[in-house]
């Protein structure tokens, strides 16, 4: 189990990218969802707007699948969750799995969230 690493005040992924500390690689991937309500899909999940979001429309587990075309090293995921806005839709557990295809995924990290309202870091690789 991994505990969330809160970003220091005033630090955000866009600022870290501008300074060269991190690099956004999500645009190199194909994103898919286990389900979504119309108007609450991948585009809203990835649009950098905290007022828009992904909303699932099916039974659990709710999955976000990120597939890269070639082997890619991912060190950190930035996840924003706001319990006050989302309430029962806010994730309570996030699991990171890796593999060569959907059928051989292995969990490498798990993160428990308790009423979050923050940008959370999930370290994938040390």
UniProtKB/TrEMBL annotation:
GO terms for biological process: anaphase-promoting complex-dependent catabolic process; cell division. Keywords: Cell cycle, Cell division, Mitosis. It comes from the Eukaryota. CDD domains: APC10. SMART domains: APC10 (SM01337). Pfam families: ANAPC10. GO terms for cellular component: anaphase-promoting complex. Residues 1-126 form the DOC domain. SUPFAM superfamilies: Galactose-binding domain-like (SSF49785). InterPro entries: APC10/Doc1, APC_su10/DOC_dom, Galactose-bd-like_sf. Belongs to the APC10 family. PANTHER family: ANAPHASE-PROMOTING COMPLEX 10, ANAPHASE-PROMOTING COMPLEX SUBUNIT 10. This is Anaphase-promoting complex subunit 10.
């Amino acid at each position: 189990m991994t505990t969330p690493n809160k970003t220091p005040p005033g630090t955000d992924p866009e600022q870290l990218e501008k300074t060269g500390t991190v690099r956004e690689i999500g645009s190199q991937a194909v994103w898919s969802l286990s389900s979504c309500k119309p108007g609450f899909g991948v585009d809203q999940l990835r649009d950098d707007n905290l007022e828009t979001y992904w909303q699932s429309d099916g039974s659990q587990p709710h999955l976000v699948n990120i597939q890269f075309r070639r082997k890619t090293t991912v060190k950190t995921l930035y996840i924003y969750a706001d319990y006050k806005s989302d309430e029962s839709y806010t994730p309570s557990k996030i699991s990171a799995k890796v593999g060569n295809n959907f059928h051989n995924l292995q969990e490498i990290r798990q993160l428990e969230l308790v009423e979050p309202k923050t940008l959370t870091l999930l370290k994938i690789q040390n």
